[in-house]
UniProtKB/TrEMBL annotation:
Keyword Transmembrane helix in record: no
Protein name, entry field: Putative pterin-4-alpha-carbinolamine dehydratase
Enzyme type, top EC level: lyase
Bilayer-crossing regions: none
EC number: 4.2.1.96
Length: 91
């Protein structure tokens, strides 16, 4: 299991567009079409399954919110940051 990152490590490692929300990191992605957001959420799900580290995904009409935390560690770890970078690669 990964160790929880310090506040400084989170700030330094957080990928572009992501922000901290308590013990999670989160980003909202905007789409022109609902089905584009659905396709994106599906692609995120595939990456998460490959990495066996699953986010919370909320789909709205033109927006998809992705949240990561490592429940077993009790906070944000390198695994969360790594997956956030991979999700950005899908966008």
């Amino acid at each position: 299991m990964s160790d929880v990152l310090s506040d400084e490590e989170i700030e330094r490692k957080l990928p572009e567009g992501w922000e901290r929300d308590g013990e999670e990191i989160t980003r909202r992605y905007t789409f022109d079409d609902y089905l584009d957001g659905i396709a994106f959420a599906s692609a995120v799900g595939e990456v998460a399954e490959e990495e066996f580290h699953h986010p919370e995904i909320r789909i709205d009409y033109e927006e998809v919110e992705v949240r990561f935390t490592t429940h077993e560690a009790g906070g944000i770890t390198d695994s969360d940051v790594r997956l956030a970078h991979l999700v950005n690669d899908e966008y």
